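subagent[fold] <- orchestrator: predict structure for attached chain, return tokens only, no commentary.
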Amino acid sequence: MRKKIGVLIAILIFTGIPLAVKATSENGNPNIKSYGSIIYKDSSGSVELYAEDIAFLQEKLASVPDEIFDPVLYSHVHEWEYINVNKNTHTRHCAVCGSLYDIVSAHEAATSRACTITYGDKDYPGYEKTCRCGYTWKVEMYHNLIYTSVDATYHRLSCGLSGTDYCSGLEAKDSEHVRTASPVDETHHQSVCNFCLIEEIQECVFDYDSFEDSENPTQIIKYCECGNYITEPKESVSENDIGNTEDRSDETSQTEQLESVSGNQTETIQGGKI
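subagent[fold] -> orchestrator:
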């Protein structure tokens, strides 16, 4: 308690504000000037202390631990050591200060180097990190993606180290298969997903593309996505289409004849025969 009183006296002696500001006393005396919130000086030069301010300051000082005024805190070089080290935190401790001023904090990597993580009979690239306290841990260098078939349409994306301390977490997502087809025989192919590698034998569907056969224009070649193809004759023209074509030909012929007669008549008139 004597330490607190000493601090209070020091504040009363050394606390001051260069510019005096006017303060109003309880009876409204305008001649009192303030040199802080505690010490007041009137026009005659006498000093007055407000008991309320002293009580307020004592109340505030009472909340400060006595240890904070211990000179040992400011008169030695800290001898830091790390204690209570676990997978998440460590405690920084000074043997001179004592446990009252221990600092608990999370690990932070002071150094990092490439390493190999072995998990489930597989090796994964990773980083080995070391904290100042000496604690060492490993994390994956990047997510090691795994595609697992869900059904004939979808597969699921996840991380090979998901659920371990090596992985920071990856939300599993479903997406559609991306397939590549290769022929098995002339009418079937094997469809394989490029990611999850699910396989399926499918019957060829010859609607991927089609071309006219360059060697036989009456034939058309139809392709499946796997590369298999079939050759079929072009679709024949129906009888109705043929009849319509002949009718259009007759109409064209009659029109040409009329134009020819009209031209001859024009030439006769110009020759003066009519």
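orchestrator: received. Logging for downstream: The longest strand covers residues 109-119. The longest helix spans residues 239-270.
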